[in-house]
Amino acid sequence: MAGFRSPDSGLRALRPEAFGADPSGERLARIRRSPHFKDGIFQNPGGPTRTRPSSLLAFARQYVDKDARRRRSPSAPVPVHATTLADLARPPASGLRLTWMGHSSVLAEIDGARVLFDPVWGERCSPFPFAGPRRLHPAPLPLTALGPVDVIVISHDHYDHLDLPTIKTLAGTDTVFAVPLGVGAHLERWGVAPDRLRELDWHESTRIAGLTLTATPARHFCGRGLRNTQHTLWASWSVAGERHRIFHSGDTGYFEGFQDIGAAHGPFDATMIQLGAYSEFWPDIHMTPEEALRAHLDLQGGAPGGVLLPIHWGTFNLAGHPWAEPAEWTADLALAAGQGVAFPHPGQPFEPAGTLPAERWWRAVSPRIDRPWREHAPTAADTPDPDAGTDSGTAPGTRGGLDLAGDR
Questions:
Q1: Residue 315 near residue 119 (C-beta atoms within 8 A)
Q2: Is-contact 156 233, C-beta < 8 A?
Q3: What letter does residue 115 receive in the DSSP assignment?
Q4: What is the model's pTM?
Q5: Fewer Cβ atoms within 10 Å of its own Cβ: the N or the C terminal residue of the chain?
Q6: How far is Cα 389 from Cα 185, in angstroms, rounded to an integer?
């Protein structure tokens, strides 16, 4: 009938722009051909995952408690490194430099190319400008001051990893996007040309600017709108240049597949591992500091090596744990394991082959956390190997070692 519009088409017209677009046409056909797509949704390695609290009442209690709410945010402004053109203008001496911009956003300069992971410059990780988790610190520099980028890598389509205002700004450049299957539908709706998209299934690779980028498995989920159709994939990423290899976890729960990723693509000079916004209410989709360190070691073949850069903490309040807990616990765990770990201020560039930023800077702006911070002066036994790139913080372990189950 001429002029007929289906109810679905009317709903699509009313759909907020931030919700993006559902895959269709050949993109949807390719999704349905994926070996990881079954029974109408993408499947996680290791089986189904818990993505929401089983008890809404118990979950709500965390957010009602006044003291718990206070500890989930910094008590003073976060000390951000005001990244300048001079910081990024000269090539890294070692060929590899990382700049953590906050949350999961990282600029990686690797073997002459520039890779920007999960760029989020927006004020809120939300479809609405007036609601949703708000930034706890400003972006270290304006997005337009970042300079040319060869490839933008997106791990999945959640709002704290795929940000509408950021993508609309980047859509005006000629940068190529490497994204998991289905995510390209969002980007096209927001103005990214189809010929600038490299849309990959797990274990698929693409070559961009002399780098090999491989979408590797992760244990998470997807969705932006009111209906979560599970028609966009989530991924971690391996990026290999002529001399260096790096890994970005995206969002993921711990699973044994990290060993396989490490065997196929590692060991890595640096890993960017998600270790914030974890909760007993969704244990399968985000990692605790213990699990994140285990994942890094798996990626390195089972032994300490490379440098661990913690991500997905410090910028947004997305879970019930204290704001400083992910960093503090990771620092202790890495020290006990002899693993090099970097704790830059947001916006502070560093080279994994050089001196690592290891100051526990969050202590000056954080309420104390449940697990006691180390108090007394370090002994010789507590002092790390200077070649390991770790820092003893202010004192040795009242509770060293890797078994921290009793500290929660």
A1: no
A2: yes
A3: E
A4: 0.87
A5: N
A6: 42
